Structures are given as C-alpha cells and as structure tokens.
Amino acid sequence: MNKRVRVRFAPSPTGGLHLGGVRTVLFNYLFAKKHGGDFILRIEDTDQSRFVPGAEAYILQTLNWCGLTPDESPEAGGPYAPYRQSERKAMYKQYAEQLIDAGYAYIAFDTPAEIEEMRNNFKTPENPSPQYNQAVRAKMRNSLSLSKEEVDALLAGNTPHVVRIKMPDNEDVTFTDMIRGEVSFNTSQVDDKVLLKADGMPTYHLAVVVDDYLMKISHAFRGEEWLPSAPVHLLLWKYLGWANDMPEWAHLPLILKPDGNGKLSKRDGDRLGFPVFAMDWTDPKTNEKNTGFKEHGFLPEAFVNLLAVLGWNDGTDQELFSMTDLIEKFSMERVHKGGAKFNYEKAKWFNAEWIKNADNAYLASLVQPYFDEAGIQVQDKSYLEKIIGITKERCILLPDFITQAGFYFAAPTSIDTASIAPKWDDAKKNFFEALCTAFENSNSNDHTVLENIFKELTAAHGLKPGELMLPMRIMLVGGKFGPGVFEIAATIGVANAVARIKHALTLL
RNA sequence: GGAGCGUUCGUCUAACGGUUAGGACCUCAGGUUUUCAUCCUGGUAAUACGGGUUCGAUUCCCGUACGCUCUACCA
C-alpha cells in the first residue's frame, strides 16, 4: 500500500472555475504535495454539446494564478498523455466490450423517445421518475431482452446503441470515504447507467474509472454531488478486474450560497454582489460575464487561504495559512462533512490580512495595473513601494490603493469642499494663505518641522489647530481619509502641498 | 416519491464522554488615532427536537424534523 500518491482534478471545460471547483483543486493539490505526489489536470470533454471554447485555457490560467499548477496536464504533457478524454476516445471501447463479454454490461437500442415513453408508462405518485434498471430492462430493447439474432441484426444495420452497466440486484456496495467514513448503497437503488454513448464517447462513469486506472490515480477526491454514483464506480473497478488498484475516495462538502440554502451558483455572485469565479469569465456563447476574485483585487494567497479554511481547519485557532503551511498541515480527515455557506465579509478580511502582511515590492507589482487603469503615473518604483507600505493597512482590496494612495502621485481630482464650506470664513482663509507662505519659506520636507510651523501659525492667528486640520487634510487628499496630514505633506513635498492648498483656496 | 449525505453562536468553526461550550467574521459598547482605516479592550450570541446507553453526553445509538445532493446518451 505504499504506492505513489497521484491525484487529479478532472473538470469538464464548460465554463469558468468557481469557488467550489478551485477548492477541490486546492485540496487535491495540498494532499498531493503533502505526500510528495503528483497533481494531474485531466480535461473531461466527452460531451461535445457542452464544450465551450476557451474554457480549458481559462482553467489552466486560474490554476496558475492560484499557484496550483498541475504536474501533468494537456499543456504540460506527462507520462500518461493524452490528458483530454476526447483524445482518449479509442481507449474506452475495449473496456466496454470487456464488460459486455463478462456479462457486467449490455447493449441497449432504446431511442430517447422510447426511454421517455417508458418513464411515462411507469410513472406513479410513489415513483415519479422511473429509472432504467433491473425492474424494467427486460421490457426494453437491449441485448438482455432481445435474442442474439435480433441483436446481431440491429448491430449489422448500424442501429444507434449505448452500453449500459448491468447493476446487480439487491447487493450492498460499501466503501470507506476518507471524510465520511463507511458509506453504503444498495444496488437496487441505482440504475443501469450508460457507460458508452451512441456517439462512441464514454460517459463520466466509464471514463473516470478507466482513466483513473490508466493514470495510476491513488486517491480520488471530488464533490459530494458524486456520492450517489459512487457505487457504479466501485462496481466498475471490480468488474474490470482492478479492485486492488482502486483509489481511496473522499467526497468533499459543497460550498453553499450565503443566503438561503443550496449550492453556490454563479448567479448568486451577481445577485449578492461578490465574485464566485476565480477570475473574470465571459461565456463565448452567451456573452454573459462573471467577475472574478482576481479582478476584484484579491491576492491569490488570500484566495487560497480563505478557500482552504472553508470546510477545513488544523484544529487550532490559526486562520492565516500560507501555501507552505497548508501543505504541511492539511489532512483530508479534518475536512468537514457538512457544506459551508460562503461569507464574502470574511473573505475580504482574509484579503485585508494578506495585504497588511505582504511585502511592499510584491504589492507594488499587483497594484501597478490598477494604477495604470486609473491613470495614476508612477515615476519611481521605490516611491510606490514606500507609499504602499504606509497605506496598506487601510486597504481591503487592491483597488482601494487607488483612493488610499493615489493622492501621493497626483493632486486629487475631486475635493470634498462641502465638508469645509459650512465652517469656512476669512480668518481660516487668511490662515491658509499665511501657511502657504510659511511652508514655502521653510522649504522643508520634514513632517515635524511642518507641524511646528502649522501650530505656531495657528497660535499667531488665534485659531485652534483642531478646526484647521480637517480642511487641510481635505485640501491635500480630497477627502476625510489617509495618514497624518503632515506626513502626507512631507511625503508629497512641501511645494506640492502648497500648490494643493492654493488650488483648494480657489474653490472655496 | 426514493436513496444517500448532513445539522454547535447570524456566518466559518474548536471541543476525538467530564470545559463557565473556545476562536474568527459580522454586530454592539468603549479606548488610541485632532480624519478615515488600522490597532487595543470588552459585550451580545450556539450544541435542531425526542428518546435511549452512561456516574456523566455537543460527542455514542435510535427515531423525528429540517436541509442538501443525486435520481440524463451532463459532468
């Protein structure tokens, strides 16, 4: 039982990656890295009708942004290529045939209309959605109910058909889930799932088993929504003769919408005003746009952190974890069984914490694009880093730096004169005019020098510093926010400060 | 309808039979900051319900309720 740890994330390329998907990746990744194993990205594109161009590239970009780069993938290749199921199509057929030959599967010729008819015929109040199972399969058109001659004739005539698993009657299938412990299903409750579709493509059920086997997957982690079909997969591993190679399973809890109940969906984000995708995603078919955590101004470290503790903790009070911490401390056994409601307020708190603790140069590189977009010119990189250092504790999301730090680079474009005007009078106006002169004469960029000048002048004018600080702040930064006024004046330079005060004076 | 899974403060969670049921977010009240934010101190707030087992149950068992997932030639 000392086989190499190999795990996979196997999305279908149908759209953007949302919180739940990224967390599944994260837990896979953490488990693999903790055990020195491999993390594989496999694209499950067996449903051509749902294929969305660009989705695969998007998924890969997202993983890279999060720092969850796969060891093997369609792009990176690897010893078990190809990693797209559509390119592995030819492999699945032989296993389907193997199952038919062994009596574990059969060929079914029923058309969608015939199945629909069956469902209508067998529908009762007690059983509103009849399944294609052992109770009805004898009444359908398949290799179990038809004679060999009929089947051969149908096959010779190229009649469209699928391959279905023949679920045994009343058999308990039990397995150990790493999160849930022992889980048990009775085969009578599960239907004869289609294994191979009429177009020759495998369904998820066949493909996941075959590929996990061929790719030597040691642990299979997926969302809780897969639990009910687990017995099908278990049986397939057994029927194919691979029982000894079967991976260990863990079904991850769902991430729920913040209000009400149910799985978090992309619609919830727009409805409640927060991102659910990792990065911006525009559906090329519908042009529907969903915003991402990245573009909202989240640090990837914060995003990974908040996802990790949504359903997992290390048993201590620690909440802030770096990727290195997570790799060291993660364990699947400590993952919760129940779903967790997503809370955007807490998510923002994680980001604020990460911004406060981040390296200034690193933050500068992340902030730069927002400044570019806002038209804020940065001449001196080290100046930017310095400014970020003194403003980062007031920022929750990266775009907050535009308002919290932008005034260090250019005079504010809008000045909140409305907050000054009510108490404005000539005495104050005279004071600020005198202050400009005094500042100019001092030619000092030392905040204590400037503060002393300011205080001496207020005394000379018979005014109180308290009623002049706020107006000065607003003149310098545009509003009621920011670090200490004299620190700001000293940082932007006394000449700039004077220019801003003079400009503001013309507006009052 | 059926099957499976789940259920501790509003939210995320800790407590692997014995705690005044702990922490964090949110919120509220103070303090620091002559702005705002940060920061600091403190408060409110939970074991779904009913039975067992046990000297003792948040914890183990059963039932009930509620919720979720699945019940496709989608994953």
Summarize the structure.
The protein has about 500 residues and is mainly alpha-helical. Helix content is about 45%, strand content about 10%.
Structure notes:
By secondary structure, this protein is mainly α. It has four domains: 87-252, Glutamyl-tRNA Synthetase, domain 3, CATH 3.90.800; 268-357, Glutamyl-trna Synthetase, Domain 2 (Glutamyl-tRNA Synthetase, domain 2, Orthogonal Bundle), CATH 1.10.1160; 360-407, Glutamate-tRNA synthetase, class I, anticodon-binding domain 1 (Helicase, Ruva Protein, domain 3, Orthogonal Bundle), CATH 1.10.8.70; 411-508, Arc Repressor Mutant, subunit A, CATH 1.10.10. Helices cover 43% and strands 10% of the residues. The strands form six sheets. The chain has a three-stranded antiparallel sheet. A two-stranded parallel ribbon has the order 1-2. A hairpin with a 6-residue loop joins strand 11 and strand 12 (289-290). The longest helix is centred in the last third of the chain and has 17 residues, at 426-442. The mean pLDDT is 95. The structure holds one RNA strand of 75 nucleotides.
